[in-house]
Amino acid sequence: xxxxxxxxxxxxxxxxxxxxxxxxxxxxxxxxxxxxxxxxxxxxxxxxxxxxxxxxxxxxxxxxxxxxxxxxxxxxxxxxxxxxxxxxxxxxxxxxxxxxxxxxxxxxxxxxxxxxxxxxxxxxxxxxxxxxxxxxxxxxxxxxxxxxxxxxxxxxxxxxxxxxxxxxxxxxxxxxxxxxxxxxxxxxxxxxxxxxxxxxxxxxxxxxxxxxxxxxxxxxxxxxxxxxxxxxxxxxxxxxxxxxxxxxxxxxxxxxxxxxxxxxxxxxxxxxxxxxxxxxxxxxxxxxxxxxxxxxxxxxxxxxxxxxxxxxxxxxxxxxxxxxxxxxxxxxxxxxxxxxxxxxxxxxxxxxxxxxxxxxxxxxxxxxxxxxxxxxxxxxxxxxxxxxxxx
Amino acid sequence: xxxxxxxxxxxxxxxxxxxxxxxxxxxxxxxxxxxxxxxxxxxxxxxxxxxxxxxxxxxxxxxxxxxxxxxxxxxxxxxxxxxxxxxxxxxxxxxxxxxxxxxxxxxxxxxxxxxxxxxxxxxxxxxxxxxxxxxxxxxxxxxxxxxxxxxxxxxxxxxxxxxxxxxxxxxxxxxxxxxxxxxxxxxxxxxxxxxxxxxxxxxxxxxxxxxxxxxxxxxxxxxxxxxxxxxxxxx
Lengths: 391, 235
Fold this sequence. Notes:
The complex is a heterodimer. By secondary structure, chain A is α+β, with helices and mostly antiparallel strands. Chain A contains 16 helices and eleven strands. Chain B is of the alpha/beta class. Helices cover 31% and strands 27% of the residues of chain B. Chain B contains six helices and ten strands; from the N terminus they run βββαββαβαααβαβββ.
């Protein structure tokens, strides 16, 4: 170990000197790697932003544990389960309350264009709001009125005029299943993959709008745990007590489930993963080009070193030294530019683009792997550095 | 005047290039002994096998049949690692200077010491500086090869080959790329340093103007040694 250390400190930093000597090549390599890193960062950034924007409903839920059908896939495909399960859950000591949430997607006549559009209707207990947003909790009395709903101001679609009218206090009406509903207020949530627009109303209104839906079949159960109870223990008792047709998830698990579902079961994860992979390949190709040109340019010198008694492993070391230096020099400008681009993209798309330490470290490791692969391919050229053949 | 055991002992050395049908013999039964402190010049027309013999002796190429002993160790059939060790015992001077463009004169010479891995950085720096002063490049130690003349570059190459005090110096037409004055200077320098360090020199050349530095001249033709004549020592 000591020997290795002395060897390293006594060593002429040949790779670095070589890179430094040709500044044009160094800058080309750096910008190539920075470019690849930016590609990777943007893909991951967009993927994560889209996935995060998709779990706003989950994040605002007023619950510690949720119950759903074992077959539930995501918020848009929750399926249903018997309301009895919620009463059963109340048997467990430590459960403070259990509330019903009805979720269903229907066609409504857009209040602005009168075109049929898909909308997600959420029915909840108007005495205990399922969502923490103040805009919703202040309007609970509105949704107790028959056929009155709250509408998402950040919905995707042509709703600007309807929203503006509502804000001015005018009554805006739409049509669901041949019933006229009026918009009693607005809240801000945002569209998701599951729904372009969300309307929230009371459980009674929900059942009126969906005459085919039995009150006893619910989409989601919202459980709150009494302060002071151990959530892990309560959860374990719930799982043991409830039959297998339902599953329980904490809010964090519910959020992660939703993200994992869209990232792995739908094209979005593949699309962005593919983009990131392209960035990686571009990086490998650029760094390989730079390194192999560099090895070619120094082939006579390398052969001379071999004639002087340097081993092949010494030259391999030089190529990998260059690869690692390039990875570090290219990564940091790439990271800096990506942070700037995240800010720009956030402004332009209203998606939450955040640079996390985990992602930065992950991409740094990817960059080192990328340069390592290029270095490994480039060292094949070293075979040509045979002093007996060159001179 | 000569030591009893030769530094380089070649016996019945044959060498072939190519494989199968294309196999061609280029060296035929070479016998040559070179003793410590000798300066031997090898002459001969192009394609006579001079450089091949030189690369075999220096361990750049592995010997196939016969016997080739350097400093007592057999190089015929030697492993890659044995060849690497053999290379470290000798200094090789090429026709082209082959200095590393990204390294200064000083760093290039230090590479000749670093391969042994025995000295500290400051010791290496000190040794490299003093040998560059000896070859008359004291003011140029921080210069890069691009900023040196052909003669100066070849002198840096000589400093690099000699800095680690090799037992044997092998030179392949070191004056070929130089004008007569620089060529003369380079050879005189090699002779002077070799005498000081007591090393043996085997020099391949076409250049008639530098034959006077030799203790002995061997001639090669068509892969055979044809003449082996001792000249009067100049020094």
